[in-house]
Amino acid sequence: MTTPRTIIQKLWDAHVVAEPSGAPALLFIDLHLVHEVTSPQAFAGLRARGLKVRRPDLTLGTCDHSTPTTPRELPIIDPIARAQVEQFEKNCTEFGIPHFGFQSERQGIVHVIGPENGVTQPGMTVVCGDSHTATHGAFGALAFGIGTSEVEMVLATQCLPQRKSKSFAVHVNGALKSGVTAKDIILALIARIGVGGGTGCVFEFTGSTIRALSMEERMTVCNMSIEGGARAGLVAPDDTTYEFLAGKPLAPKGADWDRAVARWRTLPTDGGAAYDKEISIDAAALEPMITFGTNPGQGIGISQPIPDPGGVADAVERETLRKALQYMGLEAGKPLLGQPINVVFIGSCTNSRMSDLRAAAEVLKGRKVNENVRVMVVPGSQPIKKQAEAEGLHEIFKAAGAEWREAGCSMCIAMNGDQLKPGEYSVSTSNRNFEGRQGKGGRTFLASPLTAAASALTGKVTDIRTILG
Amino acid sequence: MPEKIIAFESKTVLLPVDNIDTDQIIPARFLKTISKDGLGDQLFFDWRYEADGSPKADFVLNTEAAKGCAVLVAGDNFGCGSSREHAPWALTQFGFKAIISTSFADIFRNNSLKNGLLPIIVPKEAHEKLLGAPSTVKVDLEARTLTLEDGTSVEFPIDDFSRMCLLEGIDELGFILKHEEQIAAYEARRDSTLDTRALA
Q1: A267 to chain B, closest Cα gap in Å
Q2: N or C: which end of chain B has fewer CB within 10 A?
Q3: Residue A211 CA: distances (Å) to CA of A136, A141, A203, A239
Q4: Which among A22, A41, A229 is the nearest to B35, CB-wise?
Q5: Which parts of chain A have pLDDT scores under 70?
Q6: What pTM value is reported for the model?
Q7: CATH number of the domain where residue A349 is located
Q8: pLDDT per residue over A84-118, tens digit each?
Q9: Are A119 and B197 in contact (CB < 8 Å)?
Q10: Last residue of a domain, one of A106, A133, A162
Q11: What is the residue range of A426's domain?
């Protein structure tokens, strides 16, 4: 009998190129995604050394971060952002990397386009100079964010020196109640373990709740693994995965497909395999989650009061919480429900896919957003935008008073001109509520598309369950 | 090529806040650059400067005492969030050679080690002592030790390979390139269904 292995171990074993003595293992990378922000210095490094991109066929580029979400016929107004996008397209062309440029009909957020095109597949190692690369783990891939030095290494060699992470099983069981979504599962996990709880680990999300999630919902869960400190998070592939991938533009076809599926079916964790860490979440007990502070671990059930720093024993921890509430302009012990807001942002690699847009549209249909609130809806990719328009969702958003924009990271990272003004509050479907993340001085409440849409209607932090009725 | 680190002595500067994320270390709006230059000026920008661009007098990095300090002591889980390598670039350009905390986010830690910035993990007791007041510490990478002002010494964890790279200024890409034969052999045995991405 061979020792039972987790999917994490199987992915590792299948990608070891070499194990040099006194050094980390060299791991082969099956898919390298590149974007405009974390790659220019890596391409400059290649040029300085006279190196080529080893496997342009395993590399795919798109621009998203500093890319405007205004109509595509308009130029990029910010000259620094424009220079970055232009440099990116020039780099990809020079090094022979397929890419979806600013004007491409397939352009979109890097973590949306991989799955959408079927390039993200089970059993792969996937890297990108972006911490939300964990999104691709939803397909049963080992997917993690890397820095620019590592981007250069992968471009040049298709390999990375890696140390094995610990395995951390997150068992989620039970049926989600009405108004509770995949976003609430991951926010609840992070609130429980903290933003450093998964440091040094890869999450494997398991259990009946995860099995019942669609691929898009699994992507939402895996996407925020990094917010729990884990560089990667994944879900073992199953029929839901294969149904999603079948027929995608760059997924295997014909006999190749059959062979690929047969290989994918060997990936799930063997019975009896041991994890380094485990935690269980009762999905049926969850309510919609929302963050109140300045890191994604500072989250509460939406009906709960804002925590009191006075109750925290550790001095630095207490000061950290006090500082967060001060920045957010919130009072301990008070409810967050009813807090007035200025902006609602529906988008980002966490929640900008068709199911997210459909969920928000369902809430906004035939209603008007509050007159004091700016509501931005930003699809994850141009194909998603096109699909949403085919379904008439854009008309629902526009009729409700929301903005319908072009694809990009937009107000998740506020690099492209889409940003909060100092002091403004947003309810955002993105992944980070760090100080200034959505614009200098801006204050972010992270929540699901349902909570965001409900709050858009009232202009206040609102429990979706009061609207669903 | 990263600068070699062997041993040095420095005063410390303290930032007793947990979970300092890379958006604080360098805000995203400065990531539109295509070079690595000038990032030290943008380090902790929104904590360092008022809206009108004047320095905040009470922020520790703006104080006279912080001048010339090469060691930053911060709260737990330093460097969480975004993978931006601009964070260690900004820290080293400002003059830091080491960051001390009880823990570091994985990606930040990896990025630091590739840029001659030493992430030093210390136990809670030593951390509390270090956060008590600015002090002078000695870092010895060869011995993997941090010596506090009171003479007590703690050993800090760092893997042999990262330590060797820092001590000898070895560049990891050069190291990987030496494995061409193994990489080619791996590519030859890899399943061809993984190679279906010839994008039109």
Answers
A1: 15
A2: C
A3: 16, 16, 15, 10
A4: A41
A5: 1, 469
A6: 0.97
A7: 3.30.499.10
A8: 999 999 999 999 999 999 999 999 999 999 999 99
A9: yes
A10: A162
A11: 289-468
